[in-house]
Amino acid sequence: MPAATPNNTARTLFAPIAPTYQRWASVLSLGQDKRWRATMVAGLKLPPGGLVLDVATGTGSITRLLQKSGHTVVGADLSSAMLGQHPGPSRVLARGERLPFRPDLFDGVTFGYLLRYVDDPIACLAGFWRVLKSGSRLGMVEFGLPTTWYVPWRVYANGMLAVAGRLIGQGWYEVGKFLRPSIEDFHQRHPDLDSVFREAGFVEVRSRRLSLGGGLVMWGRKP
Hints:
Blueprint: H1 6-17, H2 21-28, H3 32-44, E1 51-55, H4 61-68, E2 72-77, H5 80-83, E3 90-93, E4 106-112, H6 121-131, E5 132-143, H7 150-168, H8 172-189, H9 193-199, E6 203-210, E7 215-221
Helix pairs in contact: 3-4, 7-8
């Protein structure tokens, strides 16, 4: 059995749900994830027709938005099962921490729900910094940890997601059990993500909390 590393956890969780991810991820986020992705892409302010790297691309939700805006997108993910559902045409099997691209290549980097699955978020972000052109931006979508409605959020994330996952099947029960402790642990270990971005070399770091804090969108620029 593979060691229980963050990367292997991601592979194990996402392989069974890849065929149904596009549909049920939106339903289980109560339709909010689409809004988070659109906000992140709009805030990147990419040049027309830019070359963008979409890391942890999954089934291509962010990729599709970028393509609709006229950008050329390279999707990278460590899960071959998820890439099998990706719209392509450029797909690369790769870890976010070890990107097989030359420095200063991309006009933008995007990623969603990734940093909870890496050992060292700063090192991972520094890898994104390396492949970005000077002056270019990256954008992140992640689950936030609400404060004003923490108790209802915890009830939903702690119990209702698992119940819904059991009804859906195909690995969603395991995802439902995993998400709440994963989100809480990540934000407890990294309460100031702005400083994490800055330590990786990014400037003009901005963050925006959406859906009463349930969604977190961030941006940074390579000097």
